[in-house]
Design a protein that fits this description.
By secondary structure, this protein is mostly helical. It contains 27 helices and five strands.
Length: 690
């Protein structure tokens, strides 16, 4: 199976360059140094890509690889100028955090060997990437496979739209389905990234899309997790390796969103969300982290951190604002902790001015938080599907949405992390944040429909799958902390045992031995029997043949032949509910509809011309409503993909009765041009004059 992917390695490497190099250039130009920028660069690259798409669209410059490179250079130059204006920054003297693990030994103590954390980060990224890429390629199968789910029709066509129109703006991407809208918002970063490598894949949108998934879910996600672990736990090599490993151990993310929706923009946003959380923690200072090397930033340092945080928040918005909502949730306990520590310090020093400022800041922050939360909520409702007790248990065991694949090693390490966080005090907010995400999942999965439920989880469309995918955001750093705590405790025990045995020098090996033992257990057992069900579900939805397939193998073969059977610029009448719309993504042919509408929408009310074609083109004659509509929409072809719909037994079978399972004997207005199995392409001939 891997041999099918090797020919696309050059395109994959180019995609990785677009994910890392713009961010590295931006950070370097702004004055950021150190190995951490290698872990955070993709979040900044996504911001660069998103801003580039909006600006180029506004000035009328086509979006593509060359314009993206040039725009990244311009933005790096601007970052350099801003970096020269803002002081370098540092930390408040004497503000370094201190403390030890509850076990009595610093689990992240490197003994002065600064190379340990970079080595651990590299190892963690390698482990996580290998595990994730192996799992993802197993689920996808072949490079040209597609997730046979509702949302994927839009995503694949949107990538083609960016390539063909040169418009990659979040402000206008939805013009693909609403061409008359001045502002047509839809997060475009995912589609922009995939569009950059379409020319390198033989013009295959499907391959480019899957390579983007491998890069984002397989490499960006574990890198972001390692950065967050560094910010919260400190320079612990053990924590870094376990953070990368844990990133590959959850069925709820990214696998869960591949089989639900599929929600690819959400995958991108959640993959970079840990970077935003890590920057927020650094901005708030050492009082909210267990990192003993962290120091309170001075005013200039806070300005630089705040600027970096704002950039990554922008990246979340051009990816998918759902992740920003998750960050808003987690920000409440961490910001409240930092605020309380600051207020207590001001009160203890009897400094009324700073205390009043903190009170005012709190009032403004609450108002801003409520405003953002209310703006980002929606009225869409998914009905509850389980009981409250079961939903809470599912979230705590990372087996959400009825999954039986519990990653027990990650559950146990999360428990250890919760214990360490509570004992250490500085990270108690992280425990609370994790429990709040568990609660929100339970509200979506089991809460009774009410205004309160809508307000709490409406921003996620009251969808428990989307909320389940947010759980690793807090679980990964808890796992990293738990691993560091367990290793510290084991090392202390081994040292005590060696001392008791009269061999104190042997006790020096306690820490590496304990670390190797934990890693040897955690890495394989995070995978064995824990992701089986999620993998099976994923493969089911990536299969060409299945009860819910949008496009089967015969239909895909016919789509690939359209560039020979039709001419560029031709318009094909399709039924989006059976996959016909993908003629645009696969063959670059214009279609009558680029995505499905809501099931309750009558085609007659949606578009009378479309209804005339969909119901009567087979028997059309010159002067008929169907011919008038075909002339108005410039339709020359009809694509018949039968009656297997995204929603089985849907009313859409009647809406498109004239182009579903066409009987040539009863459709003299259509002439068969090409066929693969039951899939057929017809030319509209009934409207030709005598």
């Amino acid at each position: 199976m891997l041999t099918d992917w090797w020919p696309h390695l050059p395109a994959f490497l180019v995609l990785l360059a677009f994910l890392w190099l713009p961010g590295l250039a931006l950070l370097w130009a702004f004055g950021q140094r150190g190995g951490r920028i290698l872990l955070t660069a993709p979040a900044f690259s996504v911001a660069v890509v998103g801003v580039t798409g909006v600006v180029l669209d506004l000035v009328g410059v086509p979006y593509g690889a060359l314009s993206q490179v040039l725009a990244a250079l311009v933005l790096a130059a601007l970052a350099w100028l801003v970096g020269r204006l803002v002081p370098r920054g540092g930390h408040v003297p004497g503000s370094h955090a201190a403390g030890t693990e509850p076990g009595g030994r610093e689990a992240h103590d490197d003994g002065g060997r600064r190379w340990l954390f970079p080595a651990g980060a590299a190892a963690g990224l390698a482990v996580g990437a290998v595990l994730l890429l192996r799992r993802l390629t197993s689920v996808i199968g072949v490079p040209e496979a597609m997730a046979q789910r509702w949302d994927n029709i839009f995503h694949l066509n949107a990538i083609r739209y960016v390539v063909e129109t040169g418009s990659g703006s979040t402000l206008t991407l939805n013009r693909m389905v609403s061409p008359d809208s001045a502002i047509a918002l839809y997060p475009a970063a995912w589609h922009q990234l995939a569009s950059l490598v379409v020319p390198l894949t033989g013009d295959s949108v499907l391959v480019a899309h899957n390579l983007t998934l491998l890069a984002v879910a397989g490499l960006v996600w574990p890198a972001s997790c390692i950065f967050l672990a560094r910010c919260l736990v400190g320079p612990s090599a053990v924590a870094a390796v376990l953070a990368g490993t844990a990133a590959a151990g959850f069925s709820v993310f990214p696998l869960g969103l591949m089989a639900w929706g599929p929600l690819f923009p959400n995958i991108l946003a959640l993959a970079i969300a840990p970077v935003s959380l890590g920057l927020l923690v650094r901005l708030l200072g050492p009082g909210v982290t267990a990192d003993r090397t962290e120091a309170t930033p001075d005013a200039a340092g806070r300005v630089r951190l705040a600027a970096s945080l704002v950039v990554t928040l922008g990246a979340l918005f051009v990816s998918q604002p759902n992740a920003f909502l998750a960050l808003l949730v987690v920000a409440v306990p961490v910001a409240a902790t930092a605020w309380w520590l600051g207020l207590r310090a001001a009160a203890g020093a009897r400094r009324r001015g700073p205390a009043l400022v903190l009170v005012a800041v709190a009032a403004l922050a609450v108002a801003a938080w409520l405003l953002l939360w209310n703006v980002l909520t929606t009225s869409f409702v998914w009905e509850p599907s389980t009981t409250l007790a079961r939903a809470v248990g599912e979230a705590l065991l990372f087996g959400a949405n009825g999954r039986e694949d519990v990653p027990w090693v990650l559950v146990l390490l999360t428990g250890a992390g919760i214990y360490a966080a509570v004992a250490r005090r500085r990270l108690r907010w992280l425990v609370l944040a994790h429990l709040v995400l568990v609660y929100l999942y339970a509200v979506a999965a089991a809460g009774e429909e009410s205004p309160a439920r809508q307000w709490l989880v409406g921003g996620w469309y009251t969808d428990s799958y989307r909320l389940a995918a947010t759980l690793p955001l807090t679980a990964v750093p808890l796992i990293a902390l738990g691993a560091a705590h367990v290793v510290g405790g084991l090392a202390a025990g081994l040292e005590s045992l060696a001392t008791f045995a009269g061999r104190p020098r042997a006790g020096r090996a306690g820490l590496p031995v304990a670390a190797l033992v934990l890693l040897a257990l955690a890495v394989p057992y995070s995978q064995v029997d824990s992701l089986t069900q999620a993998t099976r579900w994923g493969k089911q939805y990536y299969a060409w043949e299945g009860p819910e397939s949008i496009v089967d193998r015969d239909e895909y073969e016919l789509l690939q032949e359209l560039d020979e059977l039709t001419e560029p610029g031709d318009v094909i009448a399709v039924n989006p509910w059976n996959g016909g719309s993908l003629a645009y993504a696969v063959a670059d042919r214009a279609v009558t509809q680029y995505h499905v509408e809501q099931p309750a929408t009558e085609l007659r009310a949606l578009d009378p011309d479309l209804h005339a074609i969909a119901a009567g083109i087979g028997g059309a004659v010159p002067g008929s409503p169907a011919c008038a509509a075909a002339e108005e929409l410039d339709v020359q072809w009809v694509l018949d993909f039968g009656t297997q719909f995204i929603i089985p037994e849907a009313r859409q079978a009647r809406d498109y009765s004239g182009i579903n399972a066409v009987d040539p004997q009863a459709a003299p207005g259509l002439a068969l041009v090409g066929q693969e199995g039951e899939a057929a392409l017809y030319e509209v001939v009934g409207c030709d004059g005598p």
